[in-house]
Amino acid sequence: MLPDKRIDYIRKYYNSIAPERLKWKKRGSYYHESLTKFYRFSIPENKRVLEIGCGTGDLLASVHPSYGVGIDISEDMLKLAKRKYKRLRFIVGDAQHLPIQETFDYVIASDLIGNLTDIQKAFEELRKVSNDRTRIIITYYNYLWEPIVGFAEKFGFKMPKPPQNWLGKIDVYNILHLANLDVVKTGNVLLLPINIPIVSDLVNRFMAKLPVVSYFCLVQYTIARITPNVYSGQEYSVSVIIPARNEKGNIEDAVNRIPKLGTSTEIIFVEGHSRDGTYKEVQHVAQKYRNKKTIRYFKSSLEGKGYAVRLGFAKATGDILIILDADLTVPPEELPKFYHAVRLRKGELIIGTRLVYPMEREAMRFLNILGNKFFSVAFTFLLGQPIKDTLCGTKALFKKDYQGIASSRLYFGDFDPYGDYDLIFGASKKNYKITEIPIRYKARTYGSSNIDRFRHGLLLLKMTIVAALKLKFI
């Protein structure tokens, strides 16, 4: 069928079935409720949301947007939507020629791509309605379910649809790449799409999320963003946050070795509960270099690196925030890599990975390496993004993106004394892209580690379980 004829066929088909849409939604209520739950988890309330292929507008309304727009090719479906949701805006239009130019925080494309005549063109059109921070959420049937879905339609268990495009994750990834869109994360949901009391919820919450098993879920999802402009010449101001406890011997070395970054660089020390005179050394060094570098310093009343990082972020004036551990095991000379990765929007959260290059002797003990590898596998599974090193202290992000993470901190609770998981979990919940930069990890030259590997290892395991319950098994 020629593209124009297929578009017309799709329009007429959905117009013809619009009077029966409510009946079919009731028949497949468990499927639609499960999909709604996924989108409500992925999209915070009171955001600007566009849904393409919105049908009768139920999914769009369920995420409670501050401003919601629905676009659909079926005039009759939209008549029903306008009667039900008067506060939302509905526009007749084709996904391959979007009749709108404004941008949104989130774009929904649910059960849409199976109907499109030109998926690449439709994905290219998404750039019209996206900005640097827009997240595009695409859900679609797993092609393994094609015979089962066909059977359900034939025997009246599911609303029949026109002949569909059946795509795998790799197909969607490739077409997004061709359309200059960048995949943030992918996943699968809904292994059992019918309601068997208690059983369905247990299967879909736990079993459906397990490795291998998840491959057989009915619904696959991809979350994407527009590919950033890597040729941007824009520069930004930078704040380097250095949590420091018992690090007196590293303070001046840190100040000397931090290079100039962006339009301006401020160094912020946050000291807490030191026993070696670290705070006095910070004051001395700040006075000594007052005419050469911008150095600010604060005392944390609470114990723990996480609280120090949050205080430093709250006091920072830079557009970009970078954490540098005061032990200098990550060389300050590596910081330009982090700055440029954030500046060029290679990800919303940039983290270092120490597990690529060979380490100096005594830089990381064998048990620590094993622990890092365990948490790497666990986090990659939990977050839907590859994470090699969860515990490298050096991280960087725009202050605006940090504020987004901080705004959703109540979801997880105040449970992370280190600040590493707080940022990683928060970034995942916000659907931020997490990008790793390999760094060379050095041995300490002053002091000793503040980490008790066994006690803190158990705490990290506890935090991993929290993440599993809050991010994966929901």
UniProtKB/TrEMBL annotation:
Residues 45-142 form the Methyltransferase domain. InterPro entries: Glyco_trans_2-like, Glycosyltransferase_2, Methyltranfer_dom, Nucleotide-diphossugar_trans, SAM-dependent_MTases_sf. CDD domains: AdoMet_MTases, DPM_DPG-synthase_like. Transmembrane segments: none annotated. SUPFAM superfamilies: Nucleotide-diphospho-sugar transferases, S-adenosyl-L-methionine-dependent methyltransferases. Gene3D superfamilies: Spore Coat Polysaccharide Biosynthesis Protein SpsA, Chain A (3.90.550.10), Vaccinia Virus protein VP39 (3.40.50.150). Residues 239-399 form the Glycosyltransferase 2-like domain. This is Glycosyl transferase. It comes from Candidatus Woesebacteria bacterium GW2011_GWA1_41_13b.
